[in-house]
Amino acid sequence: MENKYINLLPASRLRTIRRDYFTRVISIAVLFTALLIIVFGILQVPTYTYLKHETVRQNQKLDSLKAQLATQNVQDTKKRLHDLNTNTIFLTGLSKVPMTSSAIRAVLSVNHTGVKILRLTYTATVSKIKGSEKMTIFGTASTRSALQKYKRALQAKSFINRVNLPVDSYAKDIDISFTMTLIGTFQK
């Protein structure tokens, strides 16, 4: 005969055993979950302390950068203020220098027949020496005598103190390229 398990317990007792079994399983599952939560919490303590330390360090770095930026802004402001003061002094000095257009007009008013002026450069100085402005004339003269007449005409003007013309400018007879430097006040 086959041995079959025969449950001879009454139904109420069977329900009580099942309920006790499920209560034990649920208790063990809750206990295991609680144990896992406790282990997880313990393992999170180093991460928490590291992150707290990093937050403090980052805040200190931020405060340091803010202080450095404030100092740098003050230094930049001081530098810009110094530059503005320098520019003010320069611009005040420029008000005492003759206008470029009047200087060029004064030089162009000199008769330059036979001389073709190609380019003029004017350098105004802010020095206390009167008549230290400099003008350079680049051009071509049709003949040597025309260049000589132009140089003498410039020397005759009261607003020009000195006329510098290199000697090698007279090397050619016709179509002479020259660079002449004038020093003076350039005011009529």
Would you summarize the structure shown here?
This protein has helices at residues 11-94, 100-108, 144-156, and strands at residues 115-123, 133-143, 160-164, 174-184. With 188 residues, the chain is α+β, with helices and mostly antiparallel strands.
Task: Walk me through the structure.
This protein has two domains: 9-95; 100-184, General secretion pathway protein M, EpsM (Gyrase A, domain 2). The chain has a four-stranded antiparallel beta sheet. It has helices at residues 11-94, 100-108, 144-156; strands at residues 115-123, 133-143, 160-164, 174-184. It contains three helices and four strands. Helix content is 56%, strand content 19%. The radius of gyration is 50 Å and the shape is rod-shaped. With 188 residues, the protein is α+β, with helices and mostly antiparallel strands.
Categorize the overall geometry: rod-shaped
- Specify the helix fraction band: 55-70%
Gyration radius over CA: 50 Å
Taken as a percent bin, the fraction of beta residues is: 15-25%
Terminus-to-terminus distance: 146 Å
Number of domains: 2
Oligomer: single chain
Structural class: alpha+beta
Set out the fold topology.
Elements: H1 11-94, H2 100-108, E1 115-123, E2 133-143, H3 144-156, E3 160-164, E4 174-184
Antiparallel strand pairs: 1-2, 2-4, 3-4
